[in-house]
């Protein structure tokens, strides 16, 4: 996908995890490495928004830093749209272990230039990760940061996103696991337990 840049947000505070999520270890290795290599197999370019660029020197990606750190995912989105060499960005968090290439391709196929991006929605709830964003959103993102409005939900209210229903998304991920994220040690243990169960099945 040469017209889209994949971006992993890895600059969060990891407060509930008790240690940096960039260091999450799965049975098959470091989670962030799994994500970088997985996205590198889909996209021509992979960026990681991080406060620890030294972790990525030997991986097929470029490390970038938040321009306005400390404001959560919208800071990472701002850096992604600023530094991306392409107009479209695919955004993922570093704690989401279940890449779904088929769904990513579906979003890309659905996208038209009249939209500012593509994301999943159920009622009023949106999924800002595992989503597409267009660079034209950058001025709006900058205005929100200046106004101390840091929720991507508020960005979505003002922008023209194509929304994929949860029903359609579940056709690609029956249990919704492509949106699963590891926030705590308990989440990590649950994920590893589910992974082992799938192997046994």
Write structural notes for this entry.
This protein is α/β, with parallel strands linked by helices and 201 residues long. 35% of the residues lie in helices and 22% in strands. The chain is built from 7 helices and 9 strands; from the N terminus they run βββαββαβαββααβαα. A 7-stranded mixed beta sheet has the order 5-4-1-6-8-7-9, with helices on both faces. It has a two-stranded antiparallel ribbon with strand order 2-3. A hairpin with a 2-residue loop joins strand 7 (117-122) and strand 8 (125-134).
Structure keywords:
201 residues; 7-stranded mixed beta sheet; 22% strand; 9 strands; alpha/beta; globular; 35% helix; two-stranded antiparallel ribbon
- The parts where pLDDT drops under 50 for at least 5 residues are none
For the sheet with most strands, the description reads: 7 strands, mixed
The number of helical elements comes to: 7
Give the strand order of the largest sheet, numbering strands 1, 2, ... along the chain.
5-4-1-6-8-7-9
Helical content (DSSP H or I, runs of 4+): 25-40%
Distance between the termini: 33 Å
Total strands: the figure is 9
Mean of pLDDT: 92
Apparent shape = globular
Alpha-beta classification:
alpha/beta
> Which band does the percent of strand residues land in?
15-25%
Cα-atom radius of gyration: 16 Å
Oligomer: single chain
Q: H/E series, N to C?
A: EEEHEEHEHEEHHEHH
């Amino acid at each position: 996908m040469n017209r889209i840049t994949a971006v992993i947000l890895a600059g969060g505070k990891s407060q509930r995890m008790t240690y940096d999520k960039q260091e999450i270890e799965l049975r098959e290795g470091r989670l962030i490495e799994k994500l970088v290599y997985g996205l590198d197999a889909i996209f021509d370019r992979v960026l990681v928004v991080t406060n620890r660029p030294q972790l990525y020197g030997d991986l097929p990606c470029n490390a970038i830093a938040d321009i306005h750190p400390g404001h959560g995912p919208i800071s990472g989105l701002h850096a992604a749209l600023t530094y991306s060499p392409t107009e479209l960005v695919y955004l993922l968090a570093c704690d989401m272990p279940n890449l779904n290439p088929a769904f990513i391709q579906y979003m890309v196929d659905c996208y038209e230039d009249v939209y500012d991006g593509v994301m999943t929605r159920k009622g009023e709830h949106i999924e800002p990760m595992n989503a597409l964003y267009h660079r034209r959103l950058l001025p709006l993102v900058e205005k929100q940061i200046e106004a101390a409005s840091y929720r991507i939900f508020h960005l979505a209210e003002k922008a023209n996103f194509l929304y994929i229903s949860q029903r359609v998304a579940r056709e690609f991920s029956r249990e919704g696991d492509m949106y699963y994220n590891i926030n705590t040690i308990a989440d990590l243990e649950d994920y590893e337990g589910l992974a082992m169960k799938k192997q046994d099945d």
